[in-house]
């Protein structure tokens, strides 16, 4: 799993739950987005042969899309499955907390993406 910022605690929680189910997930925290640590991303993909990019931005025009493109350009032949993205819903982010949580990526969304990726490989 590749993520940053507010999605990191959710990714770590998802990794813990996946570990209980026998899926060992590596979490890469992109602490700096510019310059993007491409070497760390490629190293993670090289070790795991899979990538799930978690981003609180929208799927279209997001950093997750840029990271996915970099992986496809530089590590396509190392992948055992397509790159997966877990992003916010394509709606304006609402102010009430319960609605905000409904549109942002959550732990069950991350677990579902990883599980689906494992099934595809």
From TrEMBL:
InterPro entries: Transketo_C/PFOR_II, Transketolase_C. Residues 1-110 form the Transketolase C-terminal domain. Its cofactor is thiamine diphosphate. Keywords: Oxidoreductase, Thiamine pyrophosphate. This is Transketolase C-terminal domain-containing protein. It comes from Marinobacterium aestuariivivens. The lineage of its organism: Bacteria, Pseudomonadati, Pseudomonadota, Gammaproteobacteria, Oceanospirillales.
């Amino acid at each position: 799993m590749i993520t940053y910022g507010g999605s990191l605690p959710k990714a770590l929680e998802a990794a813990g739950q996946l570990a209980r189910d026998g899926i060992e997930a590596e979490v890469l925290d992109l602490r700096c987005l510019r310059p993007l640590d491409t070497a760390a991303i490629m190293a993670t993909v090289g070790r795991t042969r899979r990538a799930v990019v978690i981003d609180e931005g929208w799927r279209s025009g997001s950093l997750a899309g840029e990271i996915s493109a970099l992986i496809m350009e530089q590590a396509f032949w190392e992948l055992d499955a397509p790159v997966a993205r877990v992003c916010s819903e394509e709606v304006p982010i609402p102010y009430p907390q319960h609605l905000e949580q409904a549109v942002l990526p959550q732990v069950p969304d991350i677990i579902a993406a990883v599980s689906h990726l494992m099934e595809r490989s």
